[in-house]
Design brief:
Length: about 675
């Protein structure tokens, strides 16, 4: 990355001092260099002019920096909401929890971003099955520190035709069409790379979730799976259509079957919780919904708040009166004025004294409007600004921008100034000015978050703030600490992040690039790797990646591993580069020897075995290393418990292996060594 020269590296005093030295070099007759001399006044003036020019030449204004970041596909990160999970219980009937319901942790407000459910049913027991063998665990035994294999029949090798499944039994049927959620706590491996939202990840195993109904087992829809097939602890949401029926008098059953086994480490479960809701630290103050058909209210503000209703006209939105009706158990808003097909509903809280009215347009350029909420961390904000009077007022949507740098004279843009707590509007050159009117600037949508303040400990959320008595009576327990909350990123922080991204790069060119990418592949554990060229011979132009995973993927190819590696490498490799993925090949070793133990040596056989095993482990850090017999001989001979070595040999077993006259072993570049047998005898004191 090119370093920009700093043009204003000299201070005013430095420039004057340099000029005075030049005077002495060019004209010795000018000997009065005091400040009272008229010539020095000119020197000071020119030095000041040079300092100002360099200062302006070195300044890059924030608007320009944002444009440069846009060219790199980067922008300052907005405030990030903390998130956590809450468990609800003691529901007497099946209840729906509206979207954006308020969960209280003192003064902090959390909301669920999607509709949730609090079901009367409870988890009764879990059965882990492998063929005809089954282990039943009561719900109360979960979460007590014991680990249970999700699929108990899995061994060291992948199962070709798996018969493993896990069954969950509930006390009551789960309503058809409802989304119900489970939290699955697993034994996680910290080496596994997390799967982020948007990652192109292929699950290691293929699973099928099913619900037992009157028509037998019926496949359920997986709405959400944060476990990614039992790799991580997380939320799992399901939905089915039908009518549940009891199974063998054990309860109402949901099961997951293993259809294709591709696990590196067979999953183990700690705990399973039912009726779990994900909540985010945010507070929706004003919500905007646009409907093509009936305006059905399903959010918290839509059901329990106040409303202003608009219908779409030729030039924008016009406000109208409305009525509320209940249709099929749902609350529907009916506008009094005929709409052209679209209805917009602005919902806000009952405790908002000014409603959604933010202020009045002045018609003058550069209007500034006080809005203190800007300082609290805005997640989402847009405005409706009206033109005209009375019933003829037409409202249009205005968009939030970081600045007016790219705004034209007709663009309806506004800028938030978080430091001053104001909203700024344009000047008809860069951004249009709000027209003059009374109360014609409205909040269209507004959500706020406190960023880092939302990262609270577990157990702080204890209440669902609902106007429905049934929802308010629920018992709420925050299961995990809230995490992920971050304050909005400042421009300088974004520039530093961009510089780091440019320095690290995302192209796979060098061996170090490939190895860095392998360590970041979502959902995998890559313990070791090597990058090779000419693996199959001098004519082989491919890049060969030797990959060693964890568990079952240490020395054997798993199709899911290879597919995930290829997907990541295809996005980062050069266009003309072909990728070849191989796994380590084992070279089996038989170690034979006769050694004399030193007097008073402690456990000589054990120490020798451990030293040789450590030597092989160190050697396997680099695939295909030369097995130096001389180094092994010295390592054993230097042990205090060994008086002398009478004989020592290492015999390799495998293909394409050579042994030199010095008894060194040469193996293929993707080889790892494995000791299969020791044949050691000792004389002397043991």
């Amino acid at each position: 990355m090119l370093k920009l020269e700093k043009l204003n590296s000299e201070t005013f005093e430095d420039i004057v001092e340099s000029a005075v030295k030049e005077i002495a070099r060019h004209d010795t007759s000018w000997n009065n260099l005091q400040a009272a001399d008229p010539g020095m006044t000119l020197v000071d003036l020119l030095a000041w002019l040079k300092a100002m020019q360099h200062q302006y030449m070195s300044v890059i204004f924030p608007e320009s920096k944002r444009r440069f970041l846009e060219l790199l596909g980067m922008e300052p990160r907005p405030v990030q909401c903390a998130r956590t999970l809450v468990e609800v219980s003691r529901a007497e009937t099946d209840l729906r929890i509206p979207e954006e319901s308020k969960w209280r942790a003192g003064e902090l407000v959390f909301e669920n971003r999607t509709p949730a459910a609090a079901l009367a049913s409870r988890l009764k027991s879990v059965v882990f099955r492998s063929g005809e063998r089954a282990e039943q665990v009561e719900a109360g035994q979960l979460g007590q520190g014991r680990l249970f294999p999700v699929f108990p029949g899995l061994g060291a090798e992948p199962v070709r035709e798996p018969r493993e499944e896990m069954r969950l039994f509930f006390t009551d049927p789960i309503p058809s069409g409802w989304v119900f959620s489970l939290y699955v706590s697993l034994q996680e491996d910290s080496r596994r790379t997390p799967v982020r939202e948007g990652d192109d990840f292929v699950p290691l195993a293929r699973l099928s979730w099913e619900v037992y109904t009157r028509d037998g087992w019926k496949e359920a829809e997986v709405v959400r799976d944060d476990t990614h097939g039992f790799l991580f602890s997380g939320l799992l949401s399901l939905r089915y259509e039908g009518e549940m029926a009891p199974l063998e008098d054990q309860g109402f059953a949901v099961r997951v079957r293993l259809l294709q086994d591709g696990y590196d480490l067979p999953p183990q479960v700690r705990d399973i919780r039912f009726n779990v809701v994900e909540v985010f630290q945010q507070d929706t103050l004003v919500r905007q919904d646009v409907f093509q058909g009936p305006a059905v209210m399903e959010s918290h503000l839509g059901l329990f708040g106040r409303h202003r209703v608009f219908v779409k006209g030729e030039e924008g939105w016009q406000e109208t009166g409305f009525s509320l009706e209940e249709q099929d158990g749902k609350q529907v808003i009916l506008p009094q004025r005929e709409s052209g097909g679209e209805t917009m509903v602005i919902s806000y809280g009952l405790d908002e004294p000014q409603g959604v009215t933010l202020g009045s347009g002045t018609g003058f350029s550069h209007q500034r409007l006080e809005f203190p909420l800007v300082k609290k961390g805005i997640l989402d904000l847009n405005l409706l600004i009206g033109r005209g009077r009375g019933e003829k007022t037409t409202f249009t949507q205005w968009e939030k921008r970081e600045d007016f740098y790219s705004s034209g004279p007709r663009d309806r843009h506004f800028v938030m100034d978080a430091e001053e707590g104001i909203l700024r509007f344009g000047d008809h050159v860069q951004g249009v000015t709000p027209p003059k009117g009374e109360g014609n600037i409205l909040l269209g949508q507004c959500r706020v978050s406190r960023g880092k303040e939302g990262n609270i400990k577990a157990g702080q959320i204890r209440k669902l703030d609902a106007l429905s008595p049934a929802l308010a009576a629920l018992t709420v327990r925050q299961m995990l600490p809230a995490s992920g909350g971050e304050d909005g990123e400042k421009l300088e922080e974004t520039l530093a992040r961009a510089e780091e991204a440019l320095r690290s790069g995302e192209r796979a060119v060098t061996a170090a690039d490939y190895q860095a990418l392998l360590r970041k592949i979502p959902g995998l554990i890559v313990e070791n790797s090597r990058v090779l060229t000419g693996f199959a011979g001098p004519e082989d132009r491919r890049i060969t990646l030797v990959v060693q995973g964890a568990g079952r993927a240490r020395e054997q190819a798993l199709p899911s591993y290879e597919e995930n590696i290829r997907r990541v490498m295809d996005r980062h490799r050069l266009l003309t580069t072909q990728i070849h993925v191989v796994w380590p090949r084992r070279v089996e070793l038989v170690v034979r020897g006769r050694l004399a133990a030193a007097p008073y040596g402690q456990d000589a056989p054990g120490q020798v075995r451990r030293r040789i095993e450590q030597f092989v482990r160190d050697l396997n850090q680099n695939f295909g290393s030369v097995f130096s017999f001389g180094e092994l001989y010295c390592a054993v001979d230097l042990l205090d418990c060994v008086e002398r070595i009478e004989s020592l040999s290492v015999e390799p077993v495998g293909e394409y292996i050579q042994k030199t006259t010095a008894d060194d072993i040469l193996a293929p570049p993707n080889s790892i060594y494995h000791i299969t047998r020791f044949e050691l005898s000792f004389t002397g004191s043991l």
